[in-house]
Amino acid sequence: MNPAEIDALVASAQAAKAAGQPISSLLEDGTAPAPAARTPQLADFEQTMLGSTEVPIGMLLDLTLPVSIELGRTSMMVQEILRLGRGSVIQLDRLAGEPIDIYVGERRFAEGEVVVLGEHFGVRITRVLANRGAVGAANAA
Questions:
Q1: What are the pLDDT digits (tens) for 21-75?
Q2: Beta sheet of 120-128, edge-to-edge order
Q3: pTM here?
Q4: What number of CA atoms fall less than 13 Å from residue 98's CA on the CB side?
Q5: How far apart are CA 33 and CA 123, in angstroms?
Q6: DSSP the chain
């Protein structure tokens, strides 16, 4: 059906309804009207949605998340950055001995300290931030 035919059918249905005639009288070819739209049964949907919204933890165990370690931050002007070269030292906003931040994804997850493992650096976790409130309190401190 094209838009003009749809508009004509809608107008005819409205006219038939106003005249008290059944809509089935509008069909010219004698076919039965399309089945009436039924009211959606939301109870089934609600039961499905409310019944099991938890994801089994086993489904999440194979996910890979980025872990980032932040020693500190600083801001520099472009001219200072252009002067950097081999052997330059950038002073960070952290004091020596202060815990470093450990991020999982983009969320601060824990604090730790730098350790040396053979020829590699590592991080020993000293405090896990349990929830969002703890993260906010730790950031405020």
A1: 766 655 555 444 555 566 666 666 655 555 566 777 887 888 899 999 998 999 9
A2: 67-70, 100-104, 107-117, 120-128
A3: 0.49
A4: 11
A5: 72
A6: --HHHHHHHHHHHHHHHHHT--GGGG-SS-PPPPPPPPPP-HHHHHHHHHH--PPPGGGTTT----EEEE-------HHHHHT--TT-----SSPTTPPEEEEETTEEEEEEEEEEETTEEEEEEEEE--SHHHHHHHHH-
